[in-house]
Amino acid sequence: MTYHVMKDLKISKKKPSYPVNERLHKYLTEYNRNTRISVLYDDLLRFQGSVTVYDKDDNDTLWIRVYYNDYEREEIDLSLKRVYNNLHSDGNEKIIPFLNVDAVDYCTFGNSKPFRVKVRNVLNDNYTYFYVKKADASRIYGLELEHMLSPYNLNFMVYKDTLIEEHIAGIPGDEFIENMLDDCSDSEKSQIAKEFVKFNERCMIRLLGDMRSYNYVIVPTHDFDHVVFKIRAIDFDQQSYEGKFNVYRPQFFKENATMVNLVAKKFQKESIDQYKVEERSIIAKRMISYHDRISELLNCMIHDTISQPNISSY
């Protein structure tokens, strides 16, 4: 298919959150995704105040920094440290005295309305983030498929109606396109175009929708005398929901027009087809290695409700 953008491609409607049923919980338990934690999403909603979070250029990030009553803050902090410990370590609480919860931010934009928790090691000032969200079955299916079918392993936990996700590091796609792409060399732009073709193919095959530029990140890695760029999805809310097939192809969103034009400029059809075949082949190999697990997950999806019969299609 020729690379182009559909100016009128839109998401049908805001996707509702789907509960995690017993069959999916059983699958998550089998593969060590179900983990008992001491703080739930609803617990974090009990904040008493907030302030707007701005970026380095004083732009509103659409996140607010929340605060809790003093008598609750200590308990919430300890619970969040334990969540971090379970997510990134073996649950041994010896490291908890060396952790500090620097901030809890709440996003009022988007489907999942997540909390972002910043945890810092007080011994060396290294910090990382994780997210606390309302568990959504379709998002969990997206996370699992990304873990098995993409080049990247994902670390997340589910407990009752709460989902814990590790942070996916990278440069937001829209920010990279606007501020950094023009400064890339010709060879780097060619490599980015190649990655976009593969990313586009991967999203289409696994039915991950709404990959507009702010829903994926660019990950630069230095390799000897050059930089290798990879593209990673960071939003999995629109997994297998839409009836419009082109929603699962990032190339059709106007927010990705710059990337699409870059592909058209750098590659002829033969090269694009080559990279598509490469991505399909490696996904097929991953499916073989995860055969039983993917079969179990798809069986859960078949018996679940993660879309609506009236979602538009063509």
Describe this structure in words.
It is a single chain. The strands form two sheets. This protein has a seven-stranded antiparallel β-sheet. A three-stranded antiparallel β-sheet has the order 8-9-10. It has two domains: 22-166, no CATH class; 171-302. The longest helix is centred in the C-terminal third of the chain and has 21 residues, at 269-289. It is built from nine helices and ten strands. 30% of the residues are buried. It has 314 residues and is α+β, with helices and mostly antiparallel strands.
List the keywords:
single chain, 2 domains, 21% strand, alpha+beta, 10 strands
Q: Rg to the nearest angstrom?
A: 20 Å
The counted number of beta strands is 10
Note the beta-strand portion.
Answer: 15-25%
Query: Please, how many domains?
Result: 2
The succession of helices and strands, N to C, reads: HHEEHEEEHEEEHHEEHHH
Number of helices: 9
Average pLDDT:
92
The share of residues in helices is 25-40%
What's the story with the biggest beta sheet? 7 strands, antiparallel
Structural class: alpha+beta
Query: In what order do the strands lie side by side in the largest sheet?
Result: 1-2-3-4-5-7-6
Please summarize what this structure is.
This protein is an alpha+beta fold and 314 residues long. It is 37% helix and 21% strand. The protein contains 9 helices and 10 strands.
